[in-house]
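Appendix B. Chain record.
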Amino acid sequence: MRSAGIFLCVSAVLVSTVCAAGLEPIKVEEGTGKRGSHEVRITVPGRFRVVISDGAKERGAPEDSGITGYYDLRNDPDGKYNYAAPWSGLFSHKIGIDPRREGKTGAIMPAAGPVELVEANPLRAVVKHTWPARAYGSRTNPESPDVRFEQTFVITAPDRLYQTVAIIGIGEEVTLKHFAFMLHTSHAKWSGGKTVKGGVYSLPAPWTFVKDETRGAKTCVLHAVKPGPYTHGDGKTTSTHKANFLMIMHKVKGGYGYRANRWVGFRTCLNVAGAHPVIRKGDRVEWHALTLANHDVNTLEKAKPYVEAYRNPGTPTCAKGTLVGDGFDEATGSYTLKAGPGGVDFRLPASCHCPTFEISGWRGMKPPFVAVGGARKDDYLAHVSKGALLVQIAGEIPKGTRIVIPALMQ
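Structure tokens predicted for this chain:
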């Protein structure tokens, strides 16, 4: 039985971890929030904290679950100000299907559902959120008999928040008319100057897009909250801080693109455009996205390298070890390899900031060192568990750099 407001630190039991000077191990806690909802809290020290809730005891819109808290610890170290919109959380999703099946609007959204902490270690936390889908407008509307949602969050240092959103067929065949992937913050005003209740406010957020030059489709949205000072909801406390959110959609199979819009300055949205998939019982349709949070990416030019690295990660060239799959997992943002005798030796196929490598078939403990470009590098995190090695290397690493991760026992 969990007690309200009491959290258990679940990332304290570590297996073979090396701490880096520039990368702090993340902290994961699980427990019951003040209102009685099941919550998982993930903190990247000095960067940000997110709170993921099942929404069981939350008040508000039917999508009021998922990331219900986002705190900018770099500019607000005490975590006083919640950037996640109080009516929806930081992210929400909406799909459109045949209105004859799902009410007059034909739009359905995720509702409150179970939260499961799947993985917790110093490099990343993985949380799965399973939602029933309800007709848009009220969390008390009947559940859809045809589809449900499943979302997986992967949080890593220093500033990355990956999410996979899946729509799963559980009943009759439906045609997906649209899928909206939305980001909300509490720091904004209505277009007419009327403020939203609760939270901290600013002027409408500036925003821009990066184009996929191959199709001209929108592939990311930059949702930047302007620097303060801000006046808190009590009208008394002021604070100067900011946060930028760069949301990047991974390439979607089937030729889909994205179009974008904003709503009264505080919500930015990417909609799936192109062919409309038919979802049958047992089908699973997925979308992947990376959000850079609490980052100094605030212009189009600064955003482009991150968009390129996530959408076009390339394939590592291995001198020792082999690829797993195509060598990159868009759900976790990790390059995936299998260790050979003595570890792995490969060249990085794209320029990356703080890249992560997931190496299966690892026999032994932590690597004694990591070599980057022929030089020994101590600024990295490593974690071994169940025959797999996770390594994250700090800093900017250029395309073509040779990386060697040796094993003590193979």
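Further analysis of this model is presented in Appendix C.
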